[in-house]
Amino acid sequence: MGSKTKLQTVSIPITEVLSMAVESLWNNRLRTSLTMLGVIIGIASVIAITSVGQGVQKATELQIQSLGTNLLNIQSGASRSGGINQGGGSASTLTLADAKSIAAQAPSIQQVAPYLSRQRQAAYGNTNTLTLLNGVDLNFPAVRNLNPVQGRYFTQEEIDTAKSVVVLGAKVCKDLFENPKVTEPTACTANPIGENVRLQGNLYQVIGVMEPKGNTGGFDQDDQVYLPLLSMSSRIVGTNSLQGISISGFWIKVPSDDEMEAAQFQVTNLLRLRHNIYPPQLDDFRITNQADIISTFGNVVGLMTLMVGAIAGISLVVGGIGIANIMLVSVIERTREIGIRKAVGATKNAILSQFLTEAIIVSIVGGCIGIGLGVAIAFAASSAFKFPFIISMMAVVAGFGLSAIVGLIAGVIPARNAAKLDPIAALRSD
Fold first, then answer.
1. Interhelix angle for 29-66 vs 393-420, to 10°?
2. Cβ atoms within 10 A of the Cβ of 58, count?
3. DSSP secondary-structure letter at 70?
4. How far apart are CA 22 and CA 331, in angstroms?
5. What is the largest distance, in Å, between two alpha-carbon atoms of the chain?
């Protein structure tokens, strides 16, 4: 009787519990692998989706910043046709005189770059492409951080005398002069300098090609042709406002982030005074803050990443249910083994520990494999789609911790069932 009591209170070292758990899992490799699959998919999905979301967000921020920082974009008001708003810049409410006045009177402004834009066909020989024509001034490259990689930009004389010269965007250069055409956002390999392109029936000499900037917010920065503002106004658009040369808008460069709010306030008030706008009248222009665009886009991508990551996290719960199901089946399959172990002195705690250990090992090993797979998928995606490779340590730690918790929770009920088995009934089972 005394020896029997002593057998019932024997405790098993943790190393032996681990050894038995590993041996049991290894002996049932197929079952173990299927059990891990849910956890692996869940962890890999969370890490990959988080990484891709952060990479896309960073890539977009870098693209927007590459076009100039600390910028304000002032656009003409929107015209309406048949009750439909035609969008900012479609009405002729801003003039070149407005831009010059802002440059002279607003103390928080570093540079002003007016522009006049229209979509038109550009042609060379038998090749043509629909592109955006931009009439610009001498400040435009500095404000928008654009520089020619071939040839040169306009001189002040060419701008003042409305010379028939153009600087091509990288995509327009490829569309008109490369054969076969290359769609990657890379510099144009052709040399169009000195060639003439047709714009609305007039010939313009190519004097430069801009560096490639890629696609930002659905707009291809390289699908543009630049020409002197006066040439654009007189030969392409052909319409002036009563107050002077109409423009689509102007970009403003501000010295620092701290002065953005002051600059926007000054521009708003100066334009209202010039256009005789008083409350409750609505502004006939629109101001867009480049920093706000970056912040808004970052918030949208962040929310989308969080939502999709949460959906991916559901697969972790599914994985946990899978672990629980397999462990419950395992208890039934190993009833006789449990009975023998209890008969030779294994305590309820020892049985409980072994089954819990098996569940935790399955979830942790599955979590490690899932982390590796998620990182590999994220790296492959960043390499294929050319965005920064970013791995959030928070996502890795959270995923790994969650997989361990899932395993612990999923293993509790099966482990308790195993520990509660009556040894005599267990030994009688087949």
1. 160
2. 16
3. S
4. 16
5. 114
Contacts of 397 (CB under 8 A, 6+ apart): none
The rounded distance, in Å, linking the Cα atoms of 39 and 399 is 10
Per-residue DSSP letters for 302-332?
HHHHHHHHHHHHHHHHHHHHHHHHHHHHHHH
DSSP H/E element including 205: strand 202-210
Distance of CA 122 to the CA centre of its chain: 33
- What the block records as the tokens of 131 is 């592109």
> Which residues touch 62 (CB under 8 Å, ≥6 apart)?
388
Q: pLDDT at position 359, please?
A: 80
Phi/psi of residue 303, nearest 5 degrees: -65, -40
- Supply the pLDDT for residue 85: 46
Distance CA 15, CA 27 (A): 18
Q: At what angle do helices 335-343 and 290-333 cross, to 10 degrees?
A: 70
Q: Looking at residue 430, what is its pLDDT?
A: 56
Question: CA–CA separation, 234 vs 37, rounded Å?
Answer: 68
Give the residue from 107, 31, 111, 105 showing the smallest Cα distance to 68: 111
Whole-number Å distance between alpha carbons of 373 and 403 = 15
CB 102 within 8 Å of CB 267: yes
Place of tokens 């910043």: 65
pLDDT at residue 184, as a whole number: 60
Q: What is the pTM of this model?
A: 0.65
337: number of Cβ within 10 Å: 13
pLDDT means over runs of 10, the chain (430 residues): 44 71 80 80 83 81 71 78 47 88 93 95 94 96 92 96 95 88 71 95 95 79 94 83 80 90 94 92 89 72 75 70 72 73 75 79 86 92 88 80 75 74 65
C-alpha span between 213 and 171 (Å, rounded) = 10
List of residues 6+ apart from 152 with CB closer than 8 A = 207, 208
CB 49 within 8 A of CB 387: no
Task: Give 213: exposed, middle or buried? Use CB within 10 Å, 0-12, 13-18, 19+.
Answer: buried
Q: Are strands 196-199 and 165-168 parallel, antiparallel or unpaired?
A: unpaired
Structure tokens at 129: 């492409």
H or E element in which residue 55 lies: helix 29-66
Closest CA to 4 of 423, 430, 428: 423
Amino acid identity at 279: P
User: Identity (one letter) of the amino acid at 79?
Assistant: S
What residues are paired with 134 via a beta bridge? 117, 226
